[in-house]
Amino acid sequence: MDDTLLSPFDPAGLTWTRVSPRLVTARLVVAGVWLAVLLVVTVVVAVLVGIAWVWAAPAAVLALLVWVVWLVPRQVRALGYAERDDDLLIVRGIMFRTLVVVPYGRMQYVDVQAGPLMRWLGIAQLQLHTAAAATGASIPGLTPDEAARLRDRLASRGESRLAGL
Amino acid sequence: MHPVTPVVRGWKLLVAVLAVLGFQGGEDMFGVVTRGDVGGVLALLGVLVVFAILGFCWALLAWRMTRFVVTDDAVHLRHGILFRSQRRARLDRLQAVDVVRPLLARMFGLSELRLEVAGGGDSGVSLAFLKEKEADRLRAELLALAAGLRRPASTSDQVLGDQVLGDQARESEVREGQAGDDRGFAAAPERHLYTVPLGRLVGSIALSSTPVTLVVASVAMVVAVLVSGRLGILVGFFPVLFITVASIWSQLNGGAFFRAATSPDGIRLRHGLTESRAQTVPPGRVQAVSIHQGPLWRGQDWWRVRMNVAGYGLSSDGVERESTLNPVATRDEVATALWLVLPDLGVPDPVATIAAALTGTETDGGFVPAPRRAVWVDPLGWRRRGVLVTRRALILRSGRWWRRVVVVPHERTQSLALYQGPVQRALRLASVFPHSTPGPVTPVVSHLDERVAASLMDEQAVRARQARATAGPEQWMRRPEVS
To answer: B293: which strand partners?
Structure first.
């Protein structure tokens, strides 16, 4: 990119609100638990088998863990949303970037979800639903207050602009 | 509901039991019958009779428990034996009304009335079975109510004449004038548009990939048998044969006698060989249209036209059947089908634009093409990739061998996504996805210049908003309230 200012993912005059960094912890804990289990299993297998090259498996898992630890904070920093007068913009991804524009009037309903881990960390996820299943727009890692504020705001804006399908 | 319903419905359990028996114990049954084992045959028949009676009893109970009421703004359906459920479908959210006549129901002169409302999952309302006349009358009534007309008998809303203007006013008078009984509405008059001849349908199926699969499978089968010398191998090919034959049958059955007409209540489609289906899709309910052509159809200039309607295409079966606007269309019929959905394409010369969309490449017809460097990510089809923004719709063009055109009216754009992978980023390309409701049409325009894509995103959001503001009301016979 020779001209980062004119990237299609940064519409002019828009400031992105970034999500809570606690999402990094949430994602790392989930990934960490899975990878730790995998690591233990592969180590046990390697010890039992006792052949040198079988240790490649735990090594690969370890490498994956390092990569995840490096990647997740970057991914979370790349997540952002912005409210415009008539639509909500969500951006995510570093290598594979996606920008979703959801008009308020097209929103059918809004979900706020928070699992036990997310509640413990004090974050929630906002899920937007339009009549198109493909929309699949969600904003993870919001503080509960922000999630509730956004939910109410989207609901009220959606109502004033709702126009069938 | 009609009292013969349990007779028609009861067969389902019997057929299911027969199918299970046939699959699980086909050989045993065969053996019993051929050995002349009288006791065994009697036992089998006994089991079948018991299941038949059970099936009919269940269907009878289900029929007794099913009730529906049509009010001015909704249809209420109550059904269920052990687990009761009530459903209320709002008529102003009505997306389509289908009258379906399966073979058996046809013999009894019965129809199923299916209402699609745009809910998630299986949210439609099915009223089965009604007498054919009753179903037709009910459909006319539901469409009239959904259109915003009121029953002549109901005193609550008699200011109708003032609220409807021009052609529509005349139309509603005609309707009320023709109303047979005090609460009935006459069906809206319709104008026939096109019929797909059976010969063309058969030809189109012959020129699709399914018969090729069939031929290849048959040849493979014969070779396998000759080489191995064992007939037992044939069994392994049965699934393939079964699937291809079933596919050919469903194409033929669904597309036979395909007729399209237009009426004030929207698009009317009728088709079906054994199971006949009459669909009515009210104005403004079609979310997107796709026009396809495989390489084998090119010589005949045939196209398949399909549509997205919210509510259709959510069930796993019959997607193809419900969402087809024309199973095999000529060039003229493509234009007609598009006109049905979008009377004004928003371009000065629709025929030339459609031609450019169907067969054009690069900048033909004013399309904004994918830039030349897209050849690195799409070496074969990049010339065809392009997008045209008209006053009323977004036209997306793609596919070198499998030509594909998607038309999305601006007011039907749900949300938009912009996507860029690492290779696209290096080439300064990006893809735009205008999201549509679930269905056979997935609009996408890939590998545009990233600046073009970004401005398309921005402008499309604005255009969609403006188009929605001026779009017709949900109740298509009503004048929008002045706010």
So the answer is: B403
Residue of B nearest to A10 (CA): B454
In the block, residue with structure tokens 């990739």: B385
In this prediction the pTM is 0.80
Q: At which residue do the structure tokens 């929207």 appear? A: B266
Q: Does A164 touch chain B (CB under 8 A)?
A: yes
The more confidently predicted of residues B456 and B22 is: B456
User: Could you tell me which of B217, B222, B212 has the C-alpha nearest to residue B239?
Assistant: B217
Mention every residue, 6+ apart, whose C-beta is less than 8 A from residue B128: B1, B5, B9, B105, B110, B112, B113
Interface test with B, best of A83, A101, A135, A161 (most B CBs within 10 A): A101
Query: Whole-angstrom Cα distance, residue B441 to residue A134?
Result: 12
Chain B CB within 8 Å of residue A90 CB: no
Q: Radius of gyration of chain B from Cα atoms?
A: 26
Instruction: Name the minimum distance, in Å, from the CA of A57 to any CA of chain B.
Output: 29
Assess B465–A contact: CB distance below 8 Å, yes or no: yes
Which residues does residue B46 pair with via DSSP β-bridges, in sequence order?
none
- Give the integer Cα–Cα distance in Å for B419 and B425: 10
Closest to B78 measured CA to CA, from B8, B131, B111, B127: B127
| Coil, strand or helix at B49 | helix
DSSP output for B388-403: EE-SSEEEEEE-SSSE
Handedness of CA B19, B21, B26, B31 (dihedral sign): negative
Question: B291 pLDDT exceeds 70?
Answer: yes
* Residue B470 burial class via C-beta count within 10 angstroms: exposed 0-12, middle 13-18, buried 19 and up: exposed
Q: Does B90 touch chain A (CB under 8 A)?
A: no
The Cα of B291 is separated from the nearest Cα of chain A by a number of Å equal to 20
Amino acid B29: pLDDT = 57
Q: CB-based contact (8 Å) between B437 and chain A?
A: yes
Query: What pLDDT band is residue B360 in, cutting at 50, 70 and 90?
Result: confident
Beta bridge partners of B368: B387
Residue with tokens 């065969």, as numbered in its chain? B30
